[in-house]
Amino acid sequence: TIEVVVGQDPDKKSFHVHELAICDRSEFFRNAMKPEWASQRQDGRIVELPEDDPEAFSFYMIWLYSGRIPTLPDPHVPPTSESHHTLAYAYVLGERLLDNDFKNAIADTYVLYARGMPPAKRFYPSNEEIRVIYEGTRESSPLRKLLVDIWACRGKHEWIENDPDLPKDFMVEITKALLKARTNFDSVSRPWKNAHEQYHDH
């Protein structure tokens, strides 16, 4: 086995995992355990991930050995629970570990939440999750597209009014998506045709 040390003090946590199991899934670990890389560490059997979340790695361990994501739509779990929040950190971890299957499983979980699989209610990613995902993923990340699609189709103005500090890239993509969808409103009266006084300063 190898030891994986995740996070920073005081929340740092160690995990022990079978080398073959994790290297089979993660290109990051396949590279990390190559002799030329392992020899550069004080202990070649220890891999440190100081920037990642220990709870997210716990998610990854469950996925690694069971093939399932431990968080699925549950009517008894409120949307603000830590388990939902950890999904975002887990996706970022999957990005770092270069494990597409893990990332895709998390994306599927987000889709299930957004669909509202009965008897669970619909759940959309929180603004904090959006920040975590945008800070930890590449520009072309497909999960970013899911976040944009959710907001473009189901977003409410309160989501922005209550939190104006969303990632700039996210807001740009939302704006582009809404402008592309503008053709759907051709039959709706333009507000500037109704009363020009609404644009006057009083």
Please, could you describe this protein's structure?
The chain has 202 residues and is mainly alpha-helical. The chain has a domain at 126-182. Helix content is 53%, strand content 7%. The protein has eleven helices and three strands; from the N terminus they run ββαααβαααααααα. It has helices at residues 19-25, 27-32, 35-38, 54-66, 82-97, 100-115, 127-136, 142-154, 157-161, 168-180, 191-194; strands at residues 2-6, 13-17, 46-49. The chain has a three-stranded mixed beta sheet. β1 and β2 form a beta hairpin. The chain is elongated and about 75 Å long. It starts with a strand and ends in an 8-residue tail after the last helix. The relative contact order is 0.09.
